[in-house]
Target: histidine kinase
Amino acid sequence: MRFPRLTRFLGNPWVQDIALVIPFMIVGGFALAYTLTRPDSVSPLSPALLLLTSLPLVWRRRHPLAVAAVVVTLEIGGLLLAGPNGFFVGLQAMIALYTVGRHRSGRVVLFTGLAAGLAYATPVMIRDYDPARPFVVITSIVFSMLLPFVSLGVGQFARLRGELKQRRQAEMREEAIRGERRRIARELHDVVAHHLSVINALVGGARTVLPPEPAEAREALEAAEQSARQALSEMRQLLQVLRADTADGPDAATGVGASRLPELVEKSGNASLHVHGEPVQLPTAVDHAVYRVVQEALTNTRKHAPGSRAGVRLAYLSQAVEVEVVDDGSPGKNAAAGSGFGLGGMAERVALCGGRLETGPRPRGGFRVYALLPLERA
Model:
């Protein structure tokens, strides 16, 4: 777009409504001036009515019901006083009723149509009723009651059309997101998962041909093989999430979460778990963050303070969940954990959930990892 500021200005609802009213005001102003200079030609009531019924249309989108009530009331008053002949009398009411149908729905539109129809039928009956021919006025009454529903119906049609357009656009955005997720899944499968499989195979082959004497090397290779196998398993679970059509589908779970903490703590062999509060269903992002915080903290404990014990505390609060992992290792050994990439990734994951992360050595020895994850923002 060559003129973005002009486009934004013209797209402003205030500008559009003022532009709609200006022609009515110009025509009404000239007509009123003409009738005032030539009082014997036409009554000034009609152009004055045109001005009075046009001005409220500026607020038609903000207060559609109030504007429709004011415009219809003024128009009915003009019909009773000056008759049906006037400058654009009736068009303003149609615009106001169209706005009600465009921005309201259901019973509000139905009751507005009934009220406007009865209001228009009343002056028609008073003005056109003839005792000698009582059935002639029925046609005028029916037409007066149906006319408001025409404007309301057009507004409802425009409303439904706009909602369908927004729904199509939302579906297109979701389809684009799903396509991008599938593309990322293909990249992960073709590159990362392939290299992890190669690493696992090489480590396993090296372990099988290694002599039994160097026990430490064999244990290191076994740990590397197990880590590679676990990384492959989690990679497959991640691919299932990326390939899932919706976040609520059966494939949305990655297999990690607060419910898996007992199994994680048991596998670590050097930790205990304490749960406080009534467990609740956590949002997916928070559920994954809880598991990853504990997993990374226990991994750092085994890496930087081997042989120490760790305590895991999970507390369910009213609007948040707390995770704390404390070990009894020496401060000197655990201080190195704060400089690794694991704590950085942990901080990013907690920040994405709108939470707070605290890590650092304890005064009496050991290391502490604490995370507070709010539930409302997640």
Q: What stands out?
A: DSSP finds twelve helices and five strands in the chain. Residues 136-209 form the longest helix (74 residues). The radius of gyration is 37 Å. The longest strand covers residues 320-327.
